[in-house]
């Protein structure tokens, strides 16, 4: 019970029934409390196979995505981040637009 409280509202991690959304789904992002709020440190996440659809041709558009951030009160749970990035798979937008959407989310 204590571990669940420490993890906040994380529900994807450890789930055997993972649903893979196939269009933009920001609601899959989950956070948990940062236990080291007094420290400034980087959290880095690399996604070497990010894909979205070109809005002009409808063809898959591939990219490598690097995310780095200094966490504050909350941290992004990495499995939910992977599911979120996967949700762009059938999203029709240029990568420049996708990167700005991801940054704002």
Describe the structure.
With 105 residues, the protein is α+β, with helices and mostly antiparallel strands. The chain is 24% helix and 26% strand.
The structural class is alpha+beta
Tell me the span between the first and last alpha carbons: 29 Å
Q: Please indicate the percent range of residues in DSSP E strands (runs of 2 or more).
A: 25-35%
Radius of gyration, whole Å: 15 Å
- Got a strand count? 4
Bulk shape: globular
- Output the strand order for the largest sheet: 1-4
Q: Provide a count of the helices.
A: 3
Topology, please?
Elements: H1 2-7, E1 31-33, E2 43-53, E3 60-69, E4 74-76, H2 78-86, H3 95-104
Antiparallel strand pairs: 1-4, 2-3
Quickly list its features:
two-stranded antiparallel sheet, 105 residues, disordered N terminus
Question: What's the short version?
Answer:
This protein is of the alpha+beta class. Helices cover 24% and strands 26% of the residues.
